[in-house]
Amino acid sequence: MGRRAPRTIRADRAGRRARTPPRIAITGGIGSGKSAALDAFSRRGAAVLSADAVVHELLREPAVAQSVAERFGEGVLAPDGGVDRARLGSLAFAQPDGISFLEGLLHPLVAERREQWIATQLARVPAPPLLVCEIPLLYEAGAEEAFDAALVVTASEDVRKARVEARGQRFEERSGHQLSEDEKVRMADSAFVNDGTLAELEAWVDARFAEYAGPRGR
User: Fold this and answer.
1) Using one digit for the tens of pLDDT, what is the confidence trace for 18-43?
2) pLDDT digits (tens, 9 = 90+) for 149-199
3) What is the mean pLDDT of the chain?
4) Which residue from 149, 214, 187 is spatially nearest to 1, judged by alpha carbons?
5) Residues 6 or more apart whose Cβ sits within 8 Å of residue 47
């Protein structure tokens, strides 16, 4: 998929990129293959962080679990005291403001954890060549300004639907709470249509790694 002109933000942050590893965000719709792209960056030496993994950790924390239980009922809790994610998903998507509540609760906490992670990575000697964060709701959360570039992994709706339903989830229910793929691609610095093979995705990641890591990645 074509690339648009570089964002002003990238030019404005050229000085920072010369001093520190560039911060790259990966986003895209459910079932697009974001996690596969993140794994590919990791294999090339980038430091990577998954927002979904951070959310899973947060849902095991007592204070977060209690807030969720107060909103959705004690039945949302697992035997270990954390949140039963499958049960939470069913309840949150079934209620008109369920997703909005979770986003308001979790997005600030995820952002805080992400900044802590970035600080930890910058303190490493040597620093990693790239910091890559997978953020499914990057644009919806208004988080794109924290990054030097935003990459979108997308796929045709039929392909994404098949992937999502293969893991037992409802595609329409979950995709309806996200921006359209066209909107995400329009705002991205680079986008890849992940309808083909893993090798094709890997080749795109190779190109993006070389573009953003530069000499750091050699």
Assistant:
1) 457 999 999 998 888 999 999 999 99
2) 999 999 988 988 888 888 767 666 555 667 888 999 999 999 999 999 999
3) 86
4) 187
5) 21, 121, 124, 128, 130, 131, 132
Which residues in the chain are classed under CATH 3.40.50.300? 1-46+128-218
Q: Give the pLDDT of residue 174.
A: 59
Backbone angles phi, psi at 213, to 5 degrees: -80, -35
Give the distance, in angstroms, between the CA of residue 120 and the centroid of all CA atoms in the same chain. Answer: 19
Residues 6+ apart with CB under 8 A from 83: 59, 60, 64, 65, 68, 69, 76, 77
- Report the pLDDT value the prediction gives residue 48, as an integer from 0 to 100: 98
CA–CA distance from 213 to each of 62, 121, 128, 144, 179 (Å)? 39, 15, 9, 19, 29
Superfamily of domain 1-46+128-218: P-loop containing nucleotide triphosphate hydrolases (3.40.50.300)
CA–CA distance, 70 with 217 (Å, rounded to integer): 47
Percent of the chain with pLDDT strictly greater than 90:
62
DSSP state letter for 176: T
Q: Collapsing DSSP states into helix, strand and coil, what is residue 202?
A: helix
